[in-house]
Amino acid sequence: MAIDKDSSKRPANTAFKQQRLKAWEPILTPGPVIIAFIVIGIVFIPIGAAIINSSNKVLEHVIRYDDNPNCQLGQKCTINYTLPTEMESPVYLYYKLDNFYQNHRRYVKSRNDDQLRGIEVTDFSKLKDCEPLITTDGSEDVNKILVPCGLIANSVFNDSISLADASGNLINLTKKGIAWQSDIDKKFKNYPENGVGVINFSNFEDEDFIVWMRTAALPDFKKLYRIYHGQNGPLSGTIQIRIDNKYPVASFDGKKYVVLSTTSWIGGKNPFLGYAYIIVGIICFVQGVVFAIKHKISPRVLGSPKYLEWNK
Amino acid sequence: MKLGKLKIRRKKARPSYPIIEIRPNKTTENDVNKSKGYKSNDISTTKYTRYNFIFKNLFEQFKRITNIYFAAICVITLIPQVSPLSPVTSLLPLIFVLVVTALKEAFEDYRRYKADKASNYTQYQVYRDGSFRLIKSKHICVGDFIRIDNDQAFPSDILVLSSNLEDGICYVETSQLDGETNLKLFKAAKETNSLTQEQLLDLNANIECELPNNNLYKFKGKFTLQNDNSTFSLSEKQLMLRVSGARLRNTHFIIGIVLYCGKDTKLSLNQKNPPSKFSTIETRLGRSVIGIFCFKVVLVIIATVLSSLFEFNTARDSWYLRSDFDSLGFTIVKNFVSYFAILSFLIPMSLMVTLEVVKVSQAKYMEWDVKMSYKENKKYEKQIEQPQEELKIKNEDKTTTTTISPNGDIELSNIVAKKEKSKILNKYMSVKNSNLNDELALIKYIFSDKTGTLTENRMLFSKCSINGTCFDGAMNQQLLDEVTSKTKNEESIREFLLNMSLCHAAVSDVNEETGKITYQSQSPDEIALCDCAKINQFEFINRTSTHAQIRVMGEDKQYQLLAIMEFSSDRRRMSILLREEDENNDNNSTETTPIDDSSTTDIDGNLLTPPPQLTNLKKKGKIILYSKGADSIMMERLSEKESNSELLEQTKEHISQFSREGLRTLILAKREISQEEYSNWSQQYHEASTLIHDREAEMERLNDQIERGFELVGCTAIEDKLQDGVPETIDYLLKANIKVWIITGDKQETAINIGYSCKLLVPEIPIIIINAESTEECGTQIKRAIENFIDPETQVDKKVSMVINGESLTFVLKDHSADFLKIAAKCHSVVACRVTPLQKALIVRLVKKSTKEVCLSIGDGANDVSMIQEAHIGVGIFGNEGTQAARASDYALLRFRHLARLITVHGRYSMVRNSLCIKYSFYKNMAFFLCQFWFSIYSGWTAMTLYDSWIVTTFNILMTSVPPYFMALFEKDVNEKIIPKNPHLFKEVQDCHLFQYRSILNWLIGALYHSVVFFFGLYFFLDGSGDMVNQWGRIGGKELAGSFCATFAVLSILLKAAIEIKHWNFIVHIGIWGSVIVYLVISLVDSSIITQIPNMYWVFIYALHLLKFYVMVIIMIFIALVPDFTLKFVRRHLSPTNSNIEQEKYILNRGKNKNNIDNDEEI
């Protein structure tokens, strides 16, 4: 019995324990590497060209209005703008802000998502995220809770923008669909009309509100405002942009724009992606060719003892 | 004899171990020893109890500076005003690390607890209240009589009083501990062994012992019998130690007294943890972490300055931010702390834990390796069996007489023999310090013992020189033929064979079934000598404490044993003092003096007292001192007449010849002692043996006094057989750019010949010989060597080997260290001969400190312990000579040949794996989290995190935890089949170039590049200076941007691992691609929980619907990784390393031989 016990201590001769599991050990042979580089080049360059072509087809017009002498803060104004080419529908109308830090840590955190889903939150420990805008006067009175609370919801962009044709007829713009569908479905629900707190605004399902509440990644950003679906044909000629300038940005050197844009399968106007593909493709292709030439002219034979250090 | 009671005498207190008082009729109530403060035998080796585990373990873990660092980060994240991250980002990983480590500690401690409990609750027969009772080990006390039965372990350090075997001999087996198959011999003092058990238990005595100490191999004590105030000495021969794995063997039982308990046992005192040895990689890792920390602090300072500027220039003018108007100082502190937190992940938290687990796993691979384990021993066993059979066959032809009664339990011998064989089969190497796995790859110097390390530790008698004649057929009964044919050498040969059969410390073992006698000894030389004498029919039968018995050509002879002077490394000789007792003399003598029977009775009856003067007794039979030893020692002890004889010259010539053949030589000598001289010497010797202090010195002086004036009997030559594979292994190690030094106690010629036979020395390489008798001569020889072999002009050094002896080393260590190292550091190999054990350690220390290279020492015996502990890495070999070397080492091997595989395969792989694991861990954290810093440029320097908190939390512990771990477990830069054929490949890892600071810096620069690619690629693809517009014209927002960036980063980081891995088994595949899947799963979950993570709801799912997402991810991965891949390919193609070439050769050849079965070549 003792001998049997001892036998169980014998180290197992399994592949795992002897480190002999079957394994692939690549040695970077030139052929496959060269072919891979050339194939990557051949594939990437057309993709890059296609991206650039699509990006070039995107029409985008950026019109600043806050520096217009006729559009001072508090004024209503009309800006005439002549489109050089027709804009096929859909055309997206954006407002664009520069030097506005929606990604400031203090700003981003200042919201309560439960409240935005229509829940009457009265627990101040949960509302703490909304600092410094929790109640109207900073007290802990549930009846003075701001609805909605937080910095983001209390700084919603409130300029109004509309379009008219050269004759002064309003162009029909659609508001529906400017926000994420998942936001509309799940994240934002209207607050009860007679709910607790000081209700400044209860229509949380408003898509302008939802768009604003999705904070931007960078300090210069644009947000989708309206969509033109082409009921009256493509936009062309001179259009009137009617603006009610109410949102102050001058104190922090901000800028305001209206942007008219179309899109493509790859998104908005941005050639960088295409250039990246072309450059990488060219680099890979050139490398492949250079390696192929090197391999043709003076190949290094794999596994040749000539290159061993102790044979030199 | 009367054992009467005596009054207890009060003695003056001494700074020593209290006297153990043994009293008759002792009961639990009146045990005087209880109040003397002896330690309890309750064993406790655990570090924790169930009550203090949590607190103590946390305390231990927070000694680790990285844990303190990350705990500080946790505190920061708990402050809402300051923290840019949610607390989970730091708490969860820290808790994960703490819990994993705590579980490991708890598991180990529980095992200790169970071992302690098993030990404490084992029951032993202890004499209490008038009878032997079964007492738990924990209740055993100092002074208890205890009975140990066969196959039992020892609960304490026990003084053996008697055993069932004759002369109080008993055997201890330690094969469970070290695989050593020889039984260790212990022997009760004859004063106590002669008593009956009843007399023992009625003893009235005092025992004085030295203070508890950790010397396992020495013990001094004094035993005083109170009834007649007689005293005798105690030594390590009587002290049976509580050593785990040691068991009583071949002995029915022993009766002993407990001397040391619990923490006072020598085992416990040796259990202090040795100072930790750290590898080079660990040192560099520590410094790299500090470097990264400094880099992080610089970033934090930059960010703090810029954030404060933003605060005062921009934020306060922004009405929508409704800024607090804090003071400048408060703003700066707040911003500093925030950035410190957000950039904290540049240092990977779990790297230390990963490395610990990984090193333990690597150690398991070593222990599991069949090429370094039991497979080897099957061959070894077969080789052992064959010579034994040959000996038996020859004996059967000649021996006709009946056997003598056995000493022990014969059936047990058979069982033990079987167990011993099976134990050899099951033994495998063990790793005691896995911290040094990668250090094995950096070894530049190996210092090796010879006997038992390079050699089999199994000697074969080869030749001898007797009376000026050389005999080389002794093992074929040539000597017996000479005796029976009564040649001129008959008398000399007879004396020679008597010396060999009597002058030794071997123990005989009789097999009752066959009647064959075999020998065991701690020295294999002695077994060889006994076997040779036996073959020539001078057969050693038995030895007791008073008599020795041999059989000479079928005729029994008995000698009275007067004294034994044992062999030691310092004495280098052994002697035995005997009186002939020839029972046949009465019949043959013409003039017979009647034997005085009353005198004989008196001597036997008074053994407990000093022997009286014997001048008045007339005894027949000469007193003879037989001796054997190293020739340099013995020659100076020959009588003056002998020193000038022609016989000595002839013998010297034979000795030189034997040495040139690499044989191990001993000189045999004898001397007749007069009765008067013996009486005087014996009286002094007995007095010296009872001294507590300076006992060794005094006894040695007396031994030296009598071991002089010898007649030369002859010289033996024994073949010290090399282990299998030793020449090939040494040749391999030398070609692997490792310098090998053999350090041996042999004399110069023998050492040189061993050097040639094991390929340490080769004919093509010249040898420097340093053999000086003065320090001036030594300096001269060294300077000449430097002039001859070091060319200052061309700086091209020729290959050279060196032989230096111990005496010269003494001069070197004292006066010529610097010069010696100039030449020694250039030597390809070195043989140091005539070296003492202390010098072994001094040599290692000298080379280690001056060259700063990694040194490894390997040995198998007690003499090697100091050099094993001195070296950076100590390797012990399980062998016959002892357990000390294996116990003191970092790695314990079965055979020397396994050393090459340990270093060049396992050491290499550990270096490759650990360095890749560490560099990749640094890379992945830097690449991923540095994006947060870049994002600050566009978020107003507010420490806003780009990634979601849950992504930050799981990045280290889930998404990217597997690749570094699997790299460290499975990576191989070359296939292991290549390594045995190409020792030169070892140079590539030997200089630690894989883990140079520059190599680490290259990885970090790559991480910096990748982080720039990830973030600024995102920036430029955000419509230039807008936000991301998708194909429906909708805007993405910050969360979507963060999700994109996380995807670029995680996928690129995982694919970077794929580019670096050279060995893909299916587990590695699962690890890499599985991690990609884990990332996708985590992101989807992150996007699906609206109540807990509302800001991330639907974000990743939304991304998956965008064409732009896929287009961007693909190009980002290529921008990040194409440069890495190209650089790798170009570097490999333009300047390949040796391992690249060899691996290519192997792969291509393997493809050609798909149908052939691979032959596993062993190193």
Automatic annotation (TrEMBL), chain A:
<comment type="similarity">
    <text>Belongs to the CDC50/LEM3 family.</text>
</comment>
<keyword id="KW-0812">Transmembrane</keyword>
<protein>
    <recommendedName>
        <fullName>ALA-interacting subunit</fullName>
    </recommendedName>
</protein>
<dbReference type="GO" id="GO:0005886">
    <property type="term" value="C:plasma membrane"/>
</dbReference>
<feature type="transmembrane region" description="Helical">
    <location>
        <begin position="27"/>
        <end position="52"/>
    </location>
</feature>
<dbReference type="GO" id="GO:0045332">
    <property type="term" value="P:phospholipid translocation"/>
</dbReference>
<keyword id="KW-0472">Membrane</keyword>
<dbReference type="GO" id="GO:0005794">
    <property type="term" value="C:Golgi apparatus"/>
</dbReference>
<dbReference type="GO" id="GO:0015247">
    <property type="term" value="F:aminophospholipid flippase activity"/>
</dbReference>
<dbReference type="GO" id="GO:0005783">
    <property type="term" value="C:endoplasmic reticulum"/>
</dbReference>
<feature type="transmembrane region" description="Helical">
    <location>
        <begin position="272"/>
        <end position="293"/>
    </location>
</feature>
<dbReference type="InterPro" id="IPR005045">
    <property type="entry name" value="CDC50/LEM3_fam"/>
</dbReference>
<keyword id="KW-1133">Transmembrane helix</keyword>
<dbReference type="Pfam" id="PF03381">
    <property type="entry name" value="CDC50"/>
</dbReference>
From TrEMBL, chain B:
<dbReference type="GO" id="GO:0005524">
    <property type="term" value="F:ATP binding"/>
</dbReference>
<dbReference type="GO" id="GO:0005886">
    <property type="term" value="C:plasma membrane"/>
</dbReference>
<feature type="binding site">
    <location>
        <position position="664"/>
    </location>
    <ligand>
        <name>ATP</name>
    </ligand>
</feature>
<dbReference type="GO" id="GO:0016887">
    <property type="term" value="F:ATP hydrolysis activity"/>
</dbReference>
<feature type="binding site">
    <location>
        <position position="451"/>
    </location>
    <ligand>
        <name>ATP</name>
    </ligand>
</feature>
<feature type="transmembrane region" description="Helical">
    <location>
        <begin position="289"/>
        <end position="310"/>
    </location>
</feature>
<keyword id="KW-0460">Magnesium</keyword>
<feature type="binding site">
    <location>
        <position position="526"/>
    </location>
    <ligand>
        <name>ATP</name>
    </ligand>
</feature>
<feature type="transmembrane region" description="Helical">
    <location>
        <begin position="1041"/>
        <end position="1059"/>
    </location>
</feature>
<comment type="similarity">
    <text>Belongs to the cation transport ATPase (P-type) (TC 3.A.3) family. Type IV subfamily.</text>
</comment>
<keyword id="KW-1278">Translocase</keyword>
<dbReference type="GO" id="GO:0000287">
    <property type="term" value="F:magnesium ion binding"/>
</dbReference>
<dbReference type="InterPro" id="IPR023214">
    <property type="entry name" value="HAD_sf"/>
</dbReference>
<feature type="binding site">
    <location>
        <position position="744"/>
    </location>
    <ligand>
        <name>ATP</name>
    </ligand>
</feature>
<keyword id="KW-0547">Nucleotide-binding</keyword>
<dbReference type="InterPro" id="IPR001757">
    <property type="entry name" value="P_typ_ATPase"/>
</dbReference>
<feature type="binding site">
    <location>
        <position position="863"/>
    </location>
    <ligand>
        <name>ATP</name>
    </ligand>
</feature>
<dbReference type="InterPro" id="IPR008250">
    <property type="entry name" value="ATPase_P-typ_transduc_dom_A_sf"/>
</dbReference>
<feature type="transmembrane region" description="Helical">
    <location>
        <begin position="65"/>
        <end position="82"/>
    </location>
</feature>
<feature type="transmembrane region" description="Helical">
    <location>
        <begin position="1066"/>
        <end position="1085"/>
    </location>
</feature>
<dbReference type="InterPro" id="IPR032631">
    <property type="entry name" value="P-type_ATPase_N"/>
</dbReference>
<dbReference type="InterPro" id="IPR036412">
    <property type="entry name" value="HAD-like_sf"/>
</dbReference>
